[in-house]
Specification:
- With 205 residues, this protein is of the alpha/beta class.
- It is globular and about 40 Å long.
- Helix content is 32%, strand content 26%.
- The N terminus is likely disordered.
- The protein has one domain: 3-Layer(aba) Sandwich (Rossmann fold).
- The protein is built from eight helices and eight strands, in the order αααβαβαββαββαβαβ.
- One of its GO terms (biological process) is methylation.
- Keywords: Methyltransferase, S-adenosyl-L-methionine, Transferase.
Length: 205
């Protein structure tokens, strides 16, 4: 999902073709030290304080996976694009991380359970986000958390999913959800943004 407000990438995009240039976006590649620090600080506040198992769905090239691994977590990343998965494996070579090619809505993790499920800019692309959230909730250990980074991008023909819709979909799952607004933190995006960007952290048990 492109961070640019005027070029949100629609579902059905050829992610293998986009993989080589994916990290050029400031919030994708995290090559700018300030952007990287901003995401690392947010991630540390969203993920469990103690090292645990983190499932990064729609992991792309693994930039958030890398931050989570640097914070001591064991990471499993899933992406539909084999090219993205290959880049993520290279980026996290030598770390406690496994990358799988598969569908974020139904990740191929078998009976494994996680302390956190991290999903950035994926939920809005799914045909049935409520069903995906219910499935992701089942992948959590007791006391686990869903970390959802989403938004509504663009002004002419906006795409995305508003925060209130996400919290409504989470309602039946009986967790404690909080919304953190991200639009006003330019350091996360490498520039000022005017659209709706946010994180929802939902904890269970």
């Amino acid at each position: 999902m492109s961070g640019n407000s005027d070029e949100a990438t629609a579902p059905g995009a050829d992610w293998d073709a986009l993989a080589a240039s994916f990290d050029d976006e400031p919030d994708h590649g995290l090559r700018d030290p300030e952007v990287r620090r901003a995401w690392a600080a947010r991630l540390a506040s969203w993920l469990p304080a103690l090292p645990g198992d983190v499932l990064d769905l729609g992991c792309g090239t693994g930039s958030l996976s890398l931050l989570a691994a640097e914070q001591g977590h064991r990471v499993t990343g899933v992406d539909l694009s084999p090219a993205m998965v290959e880049l993520a494996r290279t980026k996290l070579a030598g770390r406690d991380a496994v990358f799988l090619t598969g569908d974020a809505a139904a990740p191929p993790v078998g009976e494994q359970r996680f302390d956190a499920v991290l999903v950035r800019h994926v939920l809005w692309t799914l045909p049935d986000p409520g069903r995906a959230l219910r499935h992701w909730r089942q992948l959590l250990r007791p006391g686990g958390r869903l970390v959802l980074v989403e938004g509504v991008w663009g002004s002419v023909s906006p795409v995305g999913i508003p925060a209130d819709r996400v919290t409504a979909l989470l309602g039946p799952l009986a967790g404690q959800a909080r919304v953190e607004r991200l639009s006003d933190d330019a350091s996360l995006w490498g520039r000022e943004v005017a659209d709706e960007r946010y994180a929802v952290v939902a904890t269970y048990g």
